[in-house]
Amino acid sequence: MFAILILTLQSTLNPVEISEGPQDWQLFPRGENGLAEIEVRGDWRLDASMQQLRLVVQSEGGAEWESFEKVEVDRLSTGSQVRPFQLSVYAPAGLVEYEAFLILKRNGVDEILNSWSHLAVGDVLIVHGQSNAVAADYYNEQLANSTDQSPWIRSFGNSGTDPGLVAADLAWHIAGGEVGGSSGFIGSWGLDLARQIVEEEGIPVAVLNGAVGGTTVAQHQRNELDPEDLNTIYGRLLYRANQSGIADRARALFWYQGESDGPHARDWLNGFKTMAADWKEDYAGLEHLWIVQVRRGCGSPSLQLRDFQRRLTHADVRMHAATANGIYGHDGCHFHYSSYVSLGAQLGPQVGHHLYGQVALADMEAPDIQSATWTDASHTALFLDFRNVSGSLQVPAGSWTTLALDDGAVITQVTAVGNRLRLDLAASSTASTVEFSGTSGNQTPWIRNQRGLALMSFMGVPIQ
């Protein structure tokens, strides 16, 4: 409650017309200095009784900031005048809710003309892709909201595909992770990842989820003639980002898509590169991009496509990889709530390190093959060396059934030798490359690092 102000009701014409201002529950993206601008713009109808217009922002802890415009009354001509005003206050990020008040001083009395509540300052993320980025409550478990929902996690607009509903919802919402295509929906693992940031970094988070199930990368492309085309997936997300004021301030984007592109790996790669270039234009503040490598299952995404997803992250230090390999609760296409949380847990330490400067944890990224070499000239065994493996790999029985050499050589045993794998063969091999496809479902165990992250799929790795 703003205790020092006196609220009086006006029966005359409103002295202020607001063209831009906050919304209740709005999250303002912080800048590098940890502050965000809370701004009100409009037109001020001046008369001789008006001396000052103020924007006051007050935290729930009692801190207060203000911005004001003052008019010298004796300089006003007869009759009212209209002039534009712009008032702004910079507030710090943190788990603090703010109230903002637009106050007019008339005849020495303060009048609240408008107020906004539950304002917050924090960071913004984007989740995008197809159904596993939607990550709705596919099994009606009703666990995501009861576990992870928080007033510090917010979203803007409607995440559905109906252009009319998207255009009509211009409000901020407490984010939810269960009902896809609804107002404020961000998906179960998006909600879990945001919760980790709130708890570990002590700042609010806004997430926009623009994912649509069963879509190819071609369906995600920008309409160059109308980037905000609400009939397109790209346009609906961009529209929400622009309307909420976060488009150029989102810090990271998480992309989980590729199943529906099936065998069309090269088309997927070209489409992704085009789209990523468009993201750099439309989301100019992006600092990092995560690609989740899809796994075998629905849509039959080729091993080549999954290998493209793995190798894309080698070309840019701002691009990072996660993998759906080894996550249990997989029905061949989607996952249970606990499985989506496993993805959030995989991403959390990486986000903590790359976005917030936390110390990099050992094995926080999935094992990613680096090289393959014959042990000796007999070509009856080879070593595979991996990135992101600090200790010994875990190789349970049956976990290497989809490791293969290009000449079909029979692998008789796979053993961990520290952070590398040794593949023993039944006979001398003439192979030049090695691959690992991984499996669908939950029946086959996985090769994992010490943190429990499964081996990323790969193909065509040359044997030296």
Short description:
The chain is an alpha/beta fold. It is 19% helix and 32% strand.
List the helices and strands and how they pair.
Layout: E1 16-20, E2 27-29, E3 35-46, E4 50-59, E5 64-70, E6 81-92, E7 94-106, E8 109-129, H1 131-134, H2 144-148, E9 153-156, H3 163-168, E10 172-174, H4 188-201, E11 205-209, H5 233-244, E12 252-256, H6 265-282, E13 288-293, H7 303-312, E14 319-323, H8 337-356, E15 368-374, E16 381-387, E17 403-405, E18 411-417, E19 420-425, E20 433-436, E21 458-462
Helix pairs in contact: 4-8, 6-7
Low-confidence stretches: 1-11
Count of DSSP-assigned helices: 8
Rounded Rg: 27 Å
Count of discrete structural domains: 3
- What percent of residues adopt helix (DSSP H or I)? 10-25%
Looking at this structure, what is the CATH superfamily of the largest domain?
Answer: SGNH hydrolase
What's the CATH topology name of the largest domain?
Answer: Rossmann fold
Q: What is the helix/strand order?
A: EEEEEEEEHHEHEHEHEHEHEHEEEEEEE
- What structural class results from the helix and strand content? alpha/beta
Proper CATH architecture of the largest domain: 3-Layer(aba) Sandwich
Largest sheet: 11 strands, mixed
Beta-strand residue fraction: 25-35%
Write down how many β-strands occur, each being a DSSP E stretch of 2 or more residues.
Answer: 21
CATH class of the largest domain: Alpha Beta
How would you sum up the global shape?
A: elongated
Overall pLDDT metric? 94
